[in-house]
Structure to design on (262 residues):
C-alpha cells in the first residue's frame, strides 16, 4: 500500500476516532488493553520515552502522567493536531512530531524506552520500524508494544455463539496469508446505534504477520524479548462489559517487551 493512501485513511479517521476514544467507546482499550499494557510496563518515572504511532496521544499522556519525559510521533497531521490541542489545554511536557516510524527524526540512543501501542500492525514495514526503535534506544533500554494478536485476529475471524447466546468459540482462518494494506472497515464495539448511523466506519489499513514473523523481526534487529502478555478479561469485567467476553475464549491483543542489550 502506498504511504499516501495510508495517510489518507488515518486523516479520514482522526476526528471521529479522537472523539470516540475520548467518549469511552473503545471499551476493549479502556477496560483491558491499556490496563494490562500499563501493568506490564516497567517503571518509567524520569525516563525519556518515545511513542511511535501515537494517534491522538492518550497513551503518550498516560506515560507522561507516570513521570516519563515523552516525545511522540505519528504520520497523521490531524491526529497530531488533536494530541497537541490536549497538550495545550493541560501541559504534560510532551513533544509531538510529524514523522514516519521508519525514519525517526531522533539521534541514536536518545531514549530509555519506546512504545508502539496498537500501531505497528497498521504499518507496512515493521522491520524498519523496529530497527529505528532499536537505533534510538540506549543500550539497556526497552521497547514495549501492543498489537492485535496475530494468532487469534488473523485475516478471517468470526465469533461463534452457543444457542443460549454465550460465546462458544472462534473461527479463524488465513493465518499464513501476508496481508499488505487491506483496508478493514469497522466502528468501536460499544458505539451507540444512533452514532453508528451518523458516522462512516473507520478505514484501517492492516498488515497481518504471523507470530513467528513478529518475534523474529524483533530479534533480527537486535532486541531480546523479555516478556509477553495476552490480556484476558476477568469474569466480573466480562459480565459487566459483554463486549470483552470473547477475550476469555482467546486473546485479542498481544503485548511484547524486548530490550536492547547493554
Ligand atoms: C490504531 S491507531 C493507534 C493510535 C494510538 N497509539 C492509540 O493507541 O490511540 C494507529 C496509529 O498509527 C499511525 N501510523 C500508521 N502508520 C504509521 C507510520 N508508518 N508512522 C507513524 N505513525 C503511523 C496512524 O496514523 C494512527 O495514528
Amino acid at each position: 500500500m502506498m504511504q499516501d493512501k495510508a495517510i489518507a485513511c488515518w486523516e479520514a479517521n482522526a476526528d471521529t476516532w479522537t472523539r470516540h476514544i475520548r467518549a469511552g467507546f473503545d471499551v476493549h482499550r479502556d477496560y483491558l488493553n491499556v490496563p494490562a499494557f500499563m501493568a506490564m510496563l516497567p517503571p518509567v518515572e524520569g525516563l525519556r520515552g518515545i511513542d511511535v504511532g501515537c494517534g491522538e496521544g492518550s497513551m503518550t499522556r498516560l506515560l507522561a502522567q507516570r513521570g516519563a519525559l515523552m516525545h511522540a510521533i505519528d504520520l497523521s497531521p490531524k491526529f497530531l493536531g488533536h494530541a497537541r490541542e490536549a497538550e495545550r489545554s493541560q501541559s504534560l511536557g510532551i513533544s509531538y512530531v510529524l514523522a514516519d516510524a521508519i525514519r525517526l527524526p531522533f539521534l541514536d540512543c536518545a531514549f530509555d524506552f519506546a512504545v508502539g501501542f496498537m500501531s505497528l500492525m497498521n504499518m507496512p514495514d515493521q522491520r524498519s520500524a523496529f530497527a529505528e526503535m532499536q537505533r534510538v534506544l540506549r543500550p539497556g533500554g526497552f521497547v514495549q508494544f501492543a498489537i492485535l494478536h496475530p494468532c487469534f485476529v488473523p485475516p478471517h475471524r468470526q465469533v461463534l455463539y452457543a444457542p443460549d447466546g454465550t460465546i462458544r468459540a472462534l473461527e479463524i482462518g488465513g493465518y499464513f496469508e501476508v496481508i499488505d494494506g487491506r483496508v478493514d472497515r469497522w466502528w468501536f464495539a460499544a458505539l451507540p446505534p444512533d452514532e453508528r448511523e451518523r458516522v462512516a466506519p473507520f478505514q484501517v489499513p492492516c498488515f497481518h504477520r504471523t507470530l513467528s514473523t513478529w518475534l523474529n523481526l524483533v530479534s533480527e534487529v537486535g532486541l531480546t524479548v523479555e516478556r509477553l502478555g495476552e490480556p484476558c478479561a476477568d469474569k466480573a469485567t466480562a459480565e459487566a462489559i459483554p463486549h470483552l467476553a470473547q477475550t476469555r475464549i482467546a486473546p485479542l491483543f498481544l503485548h511484547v517487551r524486548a530490550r536492547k542489550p547493554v
Observations:
- The mean pLDDT is 96.
- The CA atoms of residues 38 and 62 lie 9 Å apart.
- Residues 3-149+210-259 form a domain with the Rossmann fold fold (CATH 3.40.50.150).
